[in-house]
Specification:
The complex is a heterodimer of chains A (318) and B (261).
Chain A (H helix, E strand, L loop, with lengths): L1 H16 L1 H32 L6 H17 L4 H24 L7 H23 L17 E6 L2 E6 H23 L1 H11 L1 H6 L4 H26 L13 H8 L4 H21 L12 H12 L14
Antiparallel strand pairs in A: 1-2
Chain B lengths: L8 E12 L2 E12 L3 E5 L6 H9 L6 E6 L2 E3 L4 H6 L2 E3 L12 H8 L8 H6 L3 H19 L15 H14 L4 E5 L7 H17 L3 E5 L3 H7 L2 E6 L2 E6 L1 H6 L1 H8 L4
Parallel strand pairs in B: 3-8, 3-9, 6-7, 7-8
Antiparallel strand pairs in B: 1-2, 1-4, 4-5, 9-10
Classes of the chains: A mainly alpha (318), B alpha/beta (261).
Chain lengths: 318, 261
């Protein structure tokens, strides 16, 4: 009886008693949710256009962040380093298309998936070779990202908003919106959607798959760079950062692998729910729930909606 | 029937052989398609008809033979080249962009007609917008022609099969092709839909002067529509003539009905 009280009633009583703490938690959940959405979006872009689950997305986050920081350390001005890093991500996209995707075209998806494993280990080795394996600091101030915090005196307490988090939320939202707009309203976006729906039909109307693949890998590279800057600024730049990409997995399962809105909503749900659960229900199981809670949510969603909340339901004639 | 059949050769295939591992899909097939005609490719299941279309459109690359098209002599076609030089096609099992509306499907068919750069597209006005409007006008004409106004804004994945086939034809027409390849445009349709489709094919041929190569199983349709017929069996050409002659050909009758002994 007491356990039920602790599960069903006490958390909500706490929320009511300290609304400022609730608001703080919601804000933090929102920020990490938007960042999860951004990571998931990198996966969705590539999955839609080429049917490949890009295992290397996580390492692309690390690699882009390392390139940026490494260039700055080598004496390149911050903004120029940012521009060069964008260029590097473009070169990477072209190289992946030429050297990985093109020779493997029409092979089973699992082959392409394994190829992205290979790409992952190549980027880890290459990144360590060029930039070294030690942990680095993100060049936050040099990129004109704000520091410090705003204290809001509301709800009978103080809610602290890190300025960096505000910037991260704004930048991530803008990127998500921009990608959604391009996808929906431009000719390139129409071609991207066409390729996502049917490769052979896209080929038959003269859409170049190779060109589209370069575009989506480049877009995924830009998304990775943005993620790398934001996450790197909140912690530090190291190869451990790769695991944040694994957080995108439950987001994708929740939202559906093929859906941009799914990635956004899924990211927000995971971000908010894991923070709330950790604070209010976490103590019941000894805390540390953030490491696994997202996967449980994804598992529960899978029971009821095997294609995710927004995923395309595939019905095949047999 | 259209008055075609006398035009010069638009596309010729010569000595095409195509192998998948141990399976010989096409052996030494040669025929031509004349400008302005409706050319049928028929044959029993597994005869290599779709493989032939895939060779023409560049999806398959034959091990031997050549393709002559519009002054180019190629040992293999590529899909991009085919599309740029006016070859459009439909597919046996309908390959539409299922998540997109009818309108977007047809607009995607005009991908090659639109040239404005990415940043103009982002701005959504100026040259890119004018271009979009121009292309949209052409697409609306096709929608009109195929009588699919009512489903303009419907995602095509939701449409019944017969209408999907019509939208697919529309997408091919949006490319303003010189040569239109139709892979079984009437399978899975009821009688009324078949008649409609026949009418559209004839009108496309006569109004726009589009050369058409089609694969079809319905013999009545083939005999009514086509100027000349190629018959394939086990990857070989066994007959090539006007419908009336092909119909009487003993080899063709044998291929379709089988022969004793």
């Amino acid at each position: 009886m007491h356990l039920l009280y602790l599960i069903l009633i006490d958390p909500f009583a706490q929320m009511g008693a300290a609304p400022d703490l609730l608001a703080q938690t919601l804000w933090e959940g929102l920020v990490s949710g938007v960042l999860y959405a951004l990571i998931a979006l990198g996966f969705v872009l590539i999955y839609k256009a080429s049917g490949v689950f890009n295992f290397a997305q996580g390492i692309m986050v690390v690699f882009s962040a390392l390139t940026l920081v490494g260039l700055y350390a080598a004496g390149v001005p911050a903004l120029l380093a940012l521009a060069i890093t964008v260029g590097v991500m473009f070169v990477l996209a072209v190289a992946v298309e030429r050297l990985v995707l093109r020779p493997l075209v029409n092979r089973p998806d699992i082959i392409l998936f394994m190829a992205t494993f290979g790409l992952t280990y190549f980027l880890i080795g290459f990144g360590e070779l060029v930039f070294g394996g030690d942990t680095k600091q993100m060049i936050t101030a040099q990129l004109y990202l704000p520091a410090g915090a705003i204290d809001l005196h509301i709800l009978g307490g103080i809610v602290t908003l890190q300025k960096l988090d505000i910037a991260a939320a704004i930048i991530a939202s803008l990127m998500v919106a921009a990608l959604a707009f391009v996808f929906q309203y431009t000719r390139i976006g129409r071609a991207l959607r066409a390729v996502a729906d049917s490769h052979r039909a896209a080929l038959s109307v003269g859409i170049s798959l190779n060109q589209i693949w370069v575009i989506v890998w480049f877009a995924a590279g830009i998304v990775a760079l943005a993620t790398g800057i934001m996450w790197g600024a909140r912690s530090e730049v190291s190869f451990a950062l790769e695991v944040v990409a694994l957080k995108a997995l439950p987001v994708l399962i929740l939202g559906g692998f093929t859906s941009i809105p799914g990635a956004i909503v899924g990211g927000l749900i995971i971000g908010l729910s894991e923070k709330l659960f950790e604070l209010y229900w976490g103590p019941l199981v000894g805390g540390g729930t953030e490491a696994w809670f997202a996967y449980v949510v994804a598992l529960i969603v899978l029971f009821f909606r095997p294609h995710g909340l927004f995923g395309e339901v595939i019905i095949e004639r047999i | 029937m259209s008055g075609a059949g006398a035009g010069e050769t638009l596309l010729g295939v010569a000595g095409i052989s195509l192998r998948f591992g141990g399976v010989q899909a096409l052996s030494d097939v040669s025929f031509d398609i004349r400008r302005g005609e409706i050319r049928a490719i028929i044959g029993p299941n597994g005869a290599g008809k779709t493989s032939m279309l895939n060779v023409i459109n560049g999806f398959y690359h034959p091990q031997a033979g050549r393709i002559d098209f519009g002054g180019h002599r190629l040992s293999r076609m590529r899909p991009g080249f085919a599309a740029r030089h006016g070859i459009a096609r439909t597919f046996q099992n309908v390959a539409l962009f299922r998540g997109m509306t009818t309108l977007d499907n047809l607009m995607a068919g005009r991908a090659l007609k639109m040239r404005r750069g990415f940043f103009w597209q982002l701005l959504r006005h100026g040259p890119a917008m004018r271009e979009e409007i121009e292309q949209r006008r052409a697409v609306e004409e096709i929608i009109d022609f195929l009588e699919i106004e009512a489903i303009r804004r419907v995602p095509v994945g939701r449409l019944p099969y017969g209408l999907q086939k019509r939208v697919e034809l529309g997408r091919a027409l949006a490319m303003e092709p010189e040569l239109l390849l139709l892979d079984e445009p009437m399978t899975g349709m009821n009688l009324e839909e078949k008649e409609d489709m026949c009418r559209y094919i004839l009108e496309v041929n006569s109004q726009f002067g589009t050369t058409i190569a089609l694969i079809e199983h319905d013999m009545g349709v083939v005999m009514d529509l086509s100027n000349r017929v190629v018959v394939l069996d086990y990857g070989r050409k066994i007959a090539d003539d006007v419908p009336a002659v092909v119909k009487q050909d003993p080899a063709v009758i044998a291929a379709y009905l089988g022969v004793a002994g």
